Amino acid sequence: MKKKVVIALGHSALGTTFPEQQVAVKASAKILADLVEEGCQLIITHSNAPQVGMIHTAMNEFAHYHSDFTGAPMSVCSAMSQGYIGYDLQNALRSELVKRGIYKTVSTILTQVLVDPYDEAFYHPVKVIGRYMTKEEAQKEEAKGNYVVEENGGRYRRIVSAPRPKDIIEIDAINALVDAGQLVIACGGGGIPVMAQGNTLKGASAIIEKDYAAGKLAELTDADVLMFITADKQVDIDIDTDHPTLLGSISVSEAQEHIDQKKFGEAAMLPKIQSSIDFVSEKAGREAIITNLEHAAAAVAGKGGTHIS
């Protein structure tokens, strides 16, 4: 039986600009291909923070100067980012696999993720996004019901919510491809946030926390391993001190103790740890791993990285 691994690629594995992304995905594809060669059935998800911000800024800046066009909603920007990151990533991975004599289809699924319209996160937006605005433009956004935040003295930007994922709309298609032995890229950037309105799905003005979406993807595909790719080989619970404390293998209860002691950054590591705890706790035999791209294959083999089980 192949080990089913949901691997969540962070910003460092993708780059920021178009040229950076082209280079980064080729490097990432080599490591992903190593995992395939080691017998892993991969389900890949990824960050999109710089990309979706760039798209949102570009679309709304264009609309600002062309009165015949309207700005793109967050859900549409999220869909665009999934498409173009997935396009580069699937081509890079396919090319690397073919070089090694491995012939597998790599498919990107444009993924919608269901959120609860009554999620408390909608009342406490945290994700800053988009272009800078004047005070007058910011007031117009607020009149539409959007949230804005002031930055750098007199300049304003949109700020959106980060609700928790409740379900993945395309999960049957994802599982069908996985069961067929194909490689799947899904839930990019946390997925396109949608709310159910009768038989219709309506895009939400939000950005789903990608780490929680990765955990939901691992849960619904019944993965064996949930792996988060970060910039560091192991999790450091004393990252802001001169004496790093690197975590090797820890239990769910130990991970929870570190959360209670506020050892993890709210925006960076905490969602990864909490998602890992949720995933591992639901079924015996599961494991979560946090490491960098360079050590991913070794970490799956139990050599290096931070393991939660």
UniProtKB/TrEMBL annotation:
Record flagged with keyword Kinase: yes
Keyword list, A-Z: Kinase, Transferase
Functional pathway: Metabolic intermediate metabolism; carbamoyl phosphate degradation; CO(2) and NH(3) from carbamoyl phosphate: step 1/1
A Pfam family that the UniProt record links to this protein: AA_kinase
Alphabetized CDD domains for the sequence: AAK_CK
Molecular-function GO terms, alphabetical: kinase activity
Domain Aspartate/glutamate/uridylate kinase: 3-292
InterPro entries (UniProt xref): AceGlu_kinase-like_sf, Asp/Glu/Uridylate_kinase, Carb_kinase
UniProt catalytic activity: hydrogencarbonate + NH4(+) + ATP = carbamoyl phosphate + ADP + H2O + H(+)
Alphabetical list of NCBIfam families matching this protein: PRK12352.1 (NF009007)
Family to which this protein belongs: Belongs to the carbamate kinase family.
Full protein name: Carbamate kinase
Record lineage: Bacteria, Bacillati, Bacillota, Clostridia, Lachnospirales
